[in-house]
Amino acid sequence: MTKTRRLDEIPYCPDGGALFERIRHLPGAILLDSSRVHGGNGRFDIMSACPDDTDLPRLSMPLDEAACRAWFSDLRDFHRRRYGAPQPAAADLPFSGGLLGYIGYDCGNGLNRVTPARIAGATYPPTAPAALLRAYDWAVVQDHVLRRAVLVTQPWVQPTQRTDLLLRLHDSAPVDENPEFGLNSTFLSNLTSQQYRDAFEKIQAYLLAGDCYQVNLAQRFSAGFTGDPWHAYRLLRRTAAAPFSAYITLAQKEAVLSLSPERFISLQRGRVETSPIKGTRPRHSDPLLDRQAARELRASDKDRAENLMIVDLLRNDLGRSCEPGSIRVERLFDVHSYPTVHHLVSTISGTLSDGRGAFDLLRDGFPGGSITGAPKRRAMQIIAELEPHPRQVYCGSVLYVSADGRMDSNIAIRTLLCQAGEVHCWSGGGIVADSHWQDELQETHDKVGRFLALLQFGVAGCSRP
Questions:
Q1: Model's pTM, two decimal places?
Q2: What is the domain-level CATH number for residue 178?
């Protein structure tokens, strides 16, 4: 058997979502979406389906430290057995087959020895898997800079399967003129304003006592839905395009929808990079007000201080797997503007140490510090004490680890879970000593308010923002 991956050129499609339509009904379909056609600034779309879960390591319960660390080691061993030693990617593709999926935030509780203190006796509806990384042996990759699209297959993919895929990819999918998705209830938060304020004041007490410097507090909005989550994703990506978006099929009418603007960790040719977001302002339709909001964010002492705390935390996290002295803050306090918000973003890089790889980086940095607070473990303990429901996929990571060892991942913010007839959408923000509860509560609404309104009104054709 040849060991050469096979590349087949296919017609380039400016809208990766339209190309994904041609394979999305296949089992385990997944799209990592740059949303380029809707204003996202990513370069690549990656999509696949038909994973082979034979011998795939699964994260066992309970999610304690031993189980979580063993799972990452098992994933590393599985990747080596299936794909062999890392080798240069064909035609500089970011992904040529490998592991795709997500790791939920609650895996981070296990890794960091945090036990959630949920309400005694409370029951929760069925949840998605705590982590879902699956083995894919082929992928469609689009390069929006070169305007090129290819089907890349691992050498053991059968010719009949490759032929079937090429026929699908060359055949334009019919446009669904009557998308079926709707809410059958309004979105409700799992925290009232008073409950949010009470949790905020408990965090303030911990901050003043010196327990921690920052804590990210989130609330969850939930509503009942009917129909196909893919149509909800199509609607959201038209308004909230982001470079680290993703759609992950879980089961019939169940999916993860991520419109994330934030990179967690990337690994390419030994270079490690992370780009935390901390600091947010809403966008305005008035250009003058919009520019003013961006200037205020850039000049905000509070937001810059929060951002710097997380930069220091992530320098330490990367230092566990990178060569001593290689960690660099490449950019500090950049303002990145997205369709609904402005964000304050910094970029940290390092050089991977010999003998370390993608799974070491993920294990030792998970979850991302920008959505916990600092110090990380104490902030996570406070989150586990005060948030009434598990975060599930929210604030975890959607990621790939390619057959050649490359890796990229997002922080799963602006992320929704459609499961068991309910859609859940979370939003949070970092609280520090000089925070005000009304401002922090409003920030959580600024981040996802348009998402919720679109799902409530937009599917029915309403243009309300």
A1: 0.93
A2: 3.60.120.10
